[in-house]
Structure formats: structure tokens, C-alpha cells
Design brief:
Elements: H1 18-37, E1 41-42, E2 48-50, H2 51-54, H3 60-65, E3 67-70, E4 77-80, H4 85-96, E5 102-109, E6 125-132, H5 137-153, E7 156-157, E8 161-162, E9 166-171, H6 172-182, H7 186-198, H8 201-207, H9 213-221, E10 226-227, H10 230-242, H11 246-263, E11 268-272, E12 285-290, E13 299-303, E14 317-323, H12 324-330, E15 340-344, H13 349-360, E16 365-368, E17 377-384, E18 387-392
Parallel strand pairs: 1-5, 7-8, 9-11, 15-16, 15-17
Antiparallel strand pairs: 2-4, 3-4, 5-6, 6-14, 9-12, 10-11, 12-13, 13-14, 17-18
Length: about 400
């Protein structure tokens, strides 16, 4: 590497410079305060853990995203977290082990071996909230509402930037019931899963060759089961005879959507009954939020019951997460304070006391180390009759 290359960062790894960092910190604080107002307690999990606990329960995708290294003290394999959710599940199940319902929130950097999408960061700042100990749809509704309020607090939505929010709803129980009715082998199931993720009907037909015709048609029908609420009525007709177990999932989607709409009658809700995001660890409702012009979900989540079982306590669980960096890319930079007070670099007890008072009051006070004050300063401390007073900064001509 030449000297001119030393400034380069790895692809997908970014630094956050002062103006954007100030906006990021204000937004982080605003969102954590929002979660606190809903009763969610802040936890700060470690940056790395043993892979036995860090990767458990959330599927192979997380394993592929995780940087791994050998612990020089124990010789065991460590992972740098790629997702904070399993860490919070461990905290709920083992470290806290509280009875009843537990609400936790978090904010922290993560690291990915590869970007999740073409434009995604490999070092997201993940924020989220998790609700443990309640398996009701009311808990899912609470988490969805909190996710929507999160985006609005970030300045997104109809009253902010990015246009109106669209809520995408799905339920992994639909796919599970339809696949069970088809009687596929594990190898066929994996092939069908891959085809459905790509929504490729020709590949699905090929994968289902030799399967009962009616069962194959039902699987293929999943590809088109997306859109407005009429999708749910169509699904009930399709599933009534061949996959009745899917009807409970459809009813759950209807109930969640109705509860959300009671508080947000104008919200655009999109149903996708072949949504397989996080299928390998989600156990119920899954959801995501989008804004126009941004192809990737800005926040997503779902129900993932019993992940805590590997830590000694199976718990009902639902939650969501967002990436602070993705939010920052869409919201305008907030106008931070550009006003500061210049103070002479003088060893004076009265001056030190006055500076402490100003800083305690929230002012930015910067020592003048040299001939010129810091360019952010528009005021200065000057001594008059033994007292230090704040006055407009007068620059020499």
C-alpha cells in the first residue's frame, strides 16, 4: 500500500464526521428517550461474545455475516456481533431472568462480513426494541406501533421527508402450513424456499415437478398473494380446503392490521403472504417499514418465540430494529449549535469559575490557543472591573 492509499477504508465501512456525528447522536438520544417513554429499558451488550451464544438460534445467515477470531485467553472462537438481537435475548433469558414481561432497548455498532444489500453499510449502527414474555398479538401491535413512531421521530413519514410510510405485514405460519400440506422432502423445501424468495414461478414449477398438482398450485399461488387487504380474503378461499392451518395466520394478520389502523386510519398497509425474511428464526408475524424512493426496509422485525431456550429459559419474544446510518442518509442534517465562546488561555481562578458556569449551562467554551480564536466562536469572555463577561467577538481588521 502506498502512502496515498492509507486514507482508504474497506468497502462498506464509513467514518462519521463532526456535522453528521452530531446529528446521529441527537437522533440516537431522541430515539432512546422515546423507547424509555414507552417503558423500554436500555441495555448495552458487549461488542463480541463467544460464537456459541452469539450465533445461536437466528439461522445460518447470521453466521455468514459474522467476523470470527480466536480468543487469546481461552482459545475459543469469538464473534464480532452482526446483530444485537440475540445478545438482548440472552440478557433477558439469563442475565436478567425477570418474571413476567420485560421490555428492553439498545443502540450500538455492528459489523458485517458483507453488505446485506447493494448499498448497505457493513458497519450499521443498530437501534431496536424487544418485548419478552408475552405471546399475544397485542405485543406485536405494540412493537409495530413503536417502529412506526421511531421513523416519525427521525423525521420520516408524511409530515417529514421521504413521503408516507408503508407497513409491510406477513406471517411465517402461512408458508409453513402451505409447505406442510404439500408433503415435500427437506431438499425440495429448500429449493422451493429459494424460488419463493426470488418469486420465480418457472423455477417453482420445476422444483415442484412430481408433486401433487393441487398442492403445487397452492405453493405457486403464494407468489401472487401480496397487495392490499383483499389478499387476505383471497387467501382464505385458497387455504380453506388444502391448508386450513394457514387460516389462523391470516386471521392474525387481519387482527394486527385492524388494531394498527384504529390509531392510524390513513396508514398504507401492504400484505405479503410469501414474505420469508428471517423465516428460519421467526415464528409468527413479520413486518417492515418502507418509504417511497428507498428500496430497502428502513426498519423490520417480527416474532421469534423461544430463542431464549438455548440460554435456559424459553420466552415469547417480538421486536424490531433499524439502522441509524440508513436513517441519517434520508433525513436532512439538523442545524446544531454553531455558537461558541472564546476564552483566553489564562490561569485565573475567577475565569475558571465563570467557564465552569457557562459549560454547565450548556454553552460551548473554547480555549484560545494562539493568536486567533476558534472559527466557531462568535462571543468571547472579557474582564471588566474584575468580572468576566460574555461579549460579542470582535475580530481584528
Amino acid at each position: 500500500m502506498t502512502s496515498v492509499d492509507r486514507w482508504q477504508l474497506p468497502d462498506g465501512i464509513e467514518e462519521v464526521l463532526p456535522a453528521q456525528a452530531a446529528t446521529a447522536e441527537r437522533l440516537r438520544r431522541r430515539l432512546l428517550d422515546l423507547y424509555r417513554s414507552w417503558g423500554y429499558q436500555l441495555v448495552i451488550p458487549p461488542l463480541m461474545e463467544f460464537t456459541e451464544s452469539l450465533l445461536i438460534g437466528l439461522g445460518r445467515d447470521l453466521d455468514l455475516l459474522t467476523f470470527k477470531l480466536t480468543d487469546q485467553l481461552s482459545g475459543r472462537t469469538l464473534g464480532v456481533r452482526a446483530d444485537i438481537t440475540p445478545q438482548v435475548a440472552r440478557i433477558d433469558a439469563h442475565s436478567l431472568a425477570q418474571p413476567g414481561i420485560t421490555r428492553l432497548c439498545y443502540a450500538g455498532s455492528t459489523l458485517h462480513t458483507r453488505p446485506k444489500s447493494l448499498l448497505a453499510s457493513r458497519s450499521p449502527i443498530q437501534l431496536g426494541a424487544e418485548l419478552y414474555g408475552d405471546n399475544s398479538l397485542a405485543a406485536d401491535v405494540e412493537i409495530v406501533r413503536l417502529m412506526l413512531v421511531t421513523l416519525e421521530a427521525a423525521g420520516l413519514g408524511a409530515s417529514g421527508v421521504g413521503g408516507s410510510i408503508t407497513l409491510d405485514l406477513g406471517h411465517v405460519g402461512v408458508y409453513q402450513a402451505v409447505l406442510a400440506s404439500a408433503g415435500l422432502s427437506p431438499e425440495q423445501e429448500q429449493t422451493v424456499f429459494d424460488c419463493l424468495q426470488r418469486k420465480s414461478v418457472p423455477d417453482l414449477r420445476q422444483a415442484l415437478a412430481g408433486v401433487d398438482t393441487a398442492a403445487a398450485r397452492l405453493v405457486i399461488a403464494l407468489v401472487d398473494l401480496h397487495g392490499d387487504e383483499s389478499v387476505l380474503a383471497h387467501a382464505r378461499e385458497l387455504f380453506a380446503d388444502r391448508a386450513p392451518a394457514a387460516l389462523a395466520a391470516v386471521d392474525a394478520l387481519q387482527e394486527v392490521a385492524s388494531a394498527i389502523r384504529r390509531q392510524r386510519p390513513g396508514l398504507d398497509i401492504y400484505f405479503d403472504l410469501a414474505e420469508l425474511r428471517g423465516y428460519h428464526y421467526h415464528t409468527g408475524i413479520v413486518f417492515a417499514a418502507y418509504v417511497p424512493g428507498h428500496g430497502q426496509a428502513l426498519a423490520n422485525g417480527g416474532r421469534y418465540d423461544n430463542v431464549g431456550a438455548v440460554f435456559g429459559r424459553a420466552r415469547a419474544a417480538t421486536g424490531f430494529a433499524t439502522d441509524l446510518k440508513a436513517l441519517l442518509a434520508l433525513v436532512p442534517a439538523e442545524a446544531g449549535s454553531c455558537s461558541a465562546i472564546s476564552v483566553p488561555d489564562t490561569d485565573d481562578a475567577a475565569l475558571a469559575q465563570r467557564v465552569a458556569e457557562l459549560r454547565a449551562a450548556g454553552e460551548i467554551v473554547i480555549n484560545c490557543l494562539g493568536a486567533d480564536p476558534d472559527p466557531r466562536c462568535d462571543r468571547q469572555l472579557l474582564q471588566h472591573a474584575g468580572q468576566w463577561r460574555v461579549e460579542p467577538l470582535q475580530l481584528p481588521d
